[in-house]
Amino acid sequence: MSSRPVPPGPAYRRLSVEERRGQLIATAQALFARSVPEEVSLDDVAREAGVSRPLVYRYFPGGKQQLYEAALISSADELELCFAVTESGALSLRLAAGLDHYLAFVDQHGEGFTALLKGGSVVETNRTTAIVDRVRRAAATQVLRHMRVPEPSAPLRLVVRTWITTVEAASLIWLDEEKELPLDELRDWLVDQFVAQLVVTAGRDKTTARFLRAAAEFEEPGGRIDRLFERTIAMMTPAGM
Amino acid sequence: MSSRPVPPGPAYRRLSVEERRGQLIATAQALFARSVPEEVSLDDVAREAGVSRPLVYRYFPGGKQQLYEAALISSADELELCFAVTESGALSLRLAAGLDHYLAFVDQHGEGFTALLKGGSVVETNRTTAIVDRVRRAAATQVLRHMRVPEPSAPLRLVVRTWITTVEAASLIWLDEEKELPLDELRDWLVDQFVAQLVVTAGRDKTTARFLRAAAEFEEPGGRIDRLFERTIAMMTPAGM
């Protein structure tokens, strides 16, 4: 999975094994992005890639299931890179940058992404579920690394993991509601939700409170977090209520 | 699905068709609660229910798949009743009461619940996924009915739906971490999370803000919500940070 998919070259150039494999996976990814797995056939993949069906089988003897898993692993690798953003500066900005990558992926892989996360398709198995779980876990690990909490408490881990689920659920709802909300509003809402979940948890958990104090020092004064806090406090004081 | 499962009666009493069906479903539910679907056989169900294998097949000619779906529908019916709590009084108390029902169910159906929500098991299909989705949608509808917002805005709907996902994810994590956190702490954390998500959203959405103002009037002065707001404001003011 290490080589990046390449666009099909002119017919006279012979693709290397890795290039051909990458091309077939990229073609499959594009098809799975537009249709649910049930509606994608190996013939479609062969036609779209401009190769013969036997050639697809030579690379993927396990047929559609194997090709689907390969496409999924490739997507998972891409998703895991979402939060590989710069590790310095305000956390809220890093979070927003990671979400921008993630949401662009969701935007691009709509149908396939929905089918996969909703499960129940003919090609879902324990293995595909495990791949999706790997992405979730990797996302949680990356977020925690950005937070630089050496020993996250149980409540802090719970916040991070449930926030990942919130991101996933919000993406599915966004696709389901035909991408009505502008992506940057969805991103800001997700950042706000994470901060809110942390703040509420900090009220009962010392590790989370310590993390928030440390993180606040890197936020821009009067910036996104300060404005969020202002709005939120206004909502919670009797005059605002 | 209308009759409740009954415990197996003494051998000399003939169960009615509905009673027998209910007994087999209850037996299957109990087995699926202790083991992943792959590890439950029709023989296990027959043995546990004290009946013959052919008798199980007479009621469920589709075999394990059909029995699994029946058990699932029965669980779904039960889950949908969770938020059928009194429709008066403070919302935070009603939410807590609904969560108590839900978490008791999770506690009781541990393994089966995990297998189902994680998907990828041999018995998951589009149909079982649809049943789980039905429960999610029903939960969102019930929560919105309690909130008495005639026309919920898109952000308010998003909060309710993603909170349902948070509840689900937190339950899975709770099971995964071997029920370490006391259930009432998990419940309180989930109530707090919902309020926090609403407050943050209210800062950008008028419908949510109006709802919060209306709901605040039914909360006990100095009660759970006031205390949550106090703690939260303290976390967000420079002195608290």
Question: Could you characterize what this model shows?
Answer:
Chains A, B: Residues 18-78 form the HTH tetR-type domain. Chains A, B: This is TetR/AcrR family transcriptional regulator. Chains A, B: Keywords: DNA-binding, Transcription, Transcription regulation. The structure is a homodimer of 241-residue chains. Chain A folds into 2 domains: 17-68, Arc Repressor Mutant, subunit A, CATH 1.10.10; 81-236, Orthogonal Bundle (Tetracycline Repressor, domain 2), CATH 1.10.357.10. By secondary structure, chain A is mainly alpha-helical. In chain A, 69% of the residues lie in helices and 0% in strands. Chains A and B meet through helix 7, helix 8, helix 9, helix 10 and helix 11 of A and helix 7, helix 8, helix 9, helix 10 and helix 11 of B.
Query: Describe the biggest sheet of chain A?
Result: none
Which series of helices and strands of chain A comes N to C? HHHHHHHHHHH
**How many separate helices of chain A?**
11
**CATH architecture descriptor name of the largest domain in chain A:** Orthogonal Bundle
**If you compute it from the alpha carbons, what radius of gyration of chain A comes out, rounded to the nearest whole angstrom?**
21 Å
E-strand count of chain A: 0
Spans of chain A of at least 5 consecutive residues whose pLDDT stays below 50 are: none
CATH topology title of the largest domain in chain A: Tetracycline Repressor, domain 2
Question: Structural class of the helices, strands and pairings of chain A?
Answer: mainly alpha
Which pair of chains forms the biggest interface, and how many residues does each contribute? Answer: A-B, 53 and 52 residues
Could you state the CATH homologous superfamily of the largest domain in chain A?
Tetracycline Repressor, domain 2
- The CATH class name of the largest domain in chain A reads Mainly Alpha
Q: Look at the structure and give the mean pLDDT of chain A.
A: 85
- Principal-axis shape of chain A equals elongated
**Distance separating the two termini of chain A:** 54 Å
Q: Oligomeric form of this entry?
A: homodimer
Hey, roughly how much beta strand do the residues of chain A contain? Answer: under 5%
